[in-house]
Amino acid sequence: MADDDGAWTASANEAFVISLVAPGSNGKESKFHPRFTYPIFGEEEEIFGYQDLQINLRYNATDMRPNLQIKFSKQFPAIGDAEPLDIKEVLSEFLPEVAFQPLKDWKSELAKPRDDWTPPGELLTSFTNKAGRFEVWKGTLSDPAVKQLVKRIQILVPLFIEGGTAINVDDKDAGHWTVFFLYQKKTDPSNKKPTYIFAGYSTVYRFFFLHLPPTPPTTPLSDNTSSPSPINDPIVIKEDFPLGTPTVDITTLPCRSRISQFLILPPFQHLSLGSRLYHTVYQTYLSHPPTKEITVEDPNEAFDDMRDINDLRCLRSLPSFQALQINTSTPIPKTGPVPKNIIDEAAAEKVRKEAKITKRQFYRVLEMQLMSRLGESVRPGIGLDESKKVATATERKEYALWKLMLKKRLYVHNRDALGQLQLEERVEKLGEVVKGVEFDYARLLVKMEDQEQKLREEGEGVVVVMNGKGKRKSTTEGVDNDDNGGSVRKKARVEEEEEEEEEEE
Fold it and tell me: What is annotated as the active site (predicted)?
């Protein structure tokens, strides 16, 4: 072999270039590399068989019509089993057929943009920030135009969302998918006509929401023995399964709406657009009567930060949420179970259902809210200011009750793992987890305040809507931190780079 293998091996991440090209004769081009290529080219993210390899995936930034071009200076001559990777064949599994048309045909279409083109679906909302004007459009995969656009952009999911997988747009339940497209709306300087630039998107899947009433007590038998009634036999309740039967109108059924994919393209990151898009999706299902809960599929940490901050901000717009507080008259037991009246649990549950937030997420955000109200002398921080006032007895008790509430939730959440430890070890481990959660809450509260301060200085705001009724102005826009100390491995299906983050998710 004239050259060693290294000379014929290229980094897939470096060789792969994605471009957004604005339509028109002088369309602006934004270039960026993928974050991941292992779902396509293998764990090593390397491509064998070429020198000076360039993989150019260009998109018409309006309708996202793709075009793939592969260039190289030399190709490895096949020797036995050693042969160059067929890049086109590999990528054909991720791209529609139109991506392989000649470049001149793609450029010809790009140079003749339609004056009347708009994103598929219906216009949901529009807003303006320092980057310009943006619109969010919504449609379902039963719409051929939505389906076509999703097929064109699907490859971006494994390239930017770790563990992300494409949607089967031809599946029989494809109509259960709702897609939210984020577009920048600009004016073409050459003809003064509006044009759209794709910035990101999110997909939501609707599952049937099954909620059964409590099981009646066992009925004693006549011979004074007791045996489980058939109604008390173990029942497996599958709360997440696809909606619909041939005879049922799925739009009327109670459902759980789950955010599955969430992507903001690199040229539009660091602009708080992820918060805007998340807020729009959340608001849409908040005012959607069949939706009982809004969930997220396997979020990663950066998305969780954005979600936590946005959820807290929205919940703070509810007087009923603001009214929730720690009952400092609750006695603290030295032994035994945690008291149930640390907070008004019935009132909290009512707020949770009104906000359509899952239990774990809601109580995490509530814990964060209650922690933010603790006296400064006892409130956990991030270690930036060690000087604190002497705590009063009331402040110490309120903090102790807050920690009891937190410990109870964490213990239930980590029951299986903690149950394998000896009592002393269990107490120590739970204490470590509590400290980690306290730090994370403090970090999020500082981050939230920093974002709000920055947007106050820039004069930006966002409308926070709860229940599709009341409105109030907020000064800004917006795993689940692993409460078990990181023992749970989380797949990331959601990607957004928040303004305060230094690196993408």
Answer: 297 (proton donor/acceptor)
Where do you find CATH 3.40.630.30 in the chain?
Answer: 118-212+238-300+490-505
The larger pLDDT score, comparing residue 398 to residue 333, is at 398
Provide the token pair at 136. Answer: 């969010």
Query: Distance between CA 261 and CA 157 in Å, rounded?
Result: 8
Neighbouring residues of 287: CB distance < 8 A, sequence distance ≥ 6: 465, 467, 468
Q: How far, in Å, are 18, 56, 288 from residue 60 at the CA level?
A: 11, 13, 34
User: Which tokens belong to 197?
Assistant: 């630039």
SS3 397: helix
3-state class percentages of the chain: helix first, strand second, coil last, to nearest 5: 35, 20, 45
Would you say the C-alpha torsion 454, 369, 490, 353 has a positive or negative sign? negative
Q: What are phi and psi of 469, to 5 degrees?
A: -120, -80
| 366 assigned ligand-binding residue | no
Q: How many CB atoms lie within 10 A of CB 45?
A: 19
263 is in an annotated binding site: yes
Residue 297 designated active-site: yes
Contact predicate 492/299, CB 8 Å: yes
- pLDDT over 80 at 140, yes or no: yes
Angle at 364 between CA 363 and CA 368, to 5 degrees: 110
- φ, ψ of residue 66 to 5 degrees: the values are -90, 160
pLDDT score, position 61:
96
Say what the pTM is: 0.82
CATH for 118-212+238-300+490-505? 3.40.630.30
What confidence score (pLDDT) does residue 242 get?
59
Ligand-binding annotation for 72, yes or no, is no
Residues of the chain with CATH 3.90.360.10: 1-116
Tokens of 70: 């592969």
Cα–Cα dist 349/370, whole Å: 15
Q: How far apart are CA 73 and CA 452, in angstroms?
A: 51
Considering 46, 135, 293, 297, which one is annotated as catalytic?
Answer: 297
Q: 1-116, superfamily in CATH? A: Histone acetyl transferase 1 (HAT1), N-terminal domain (3.90.360.10)
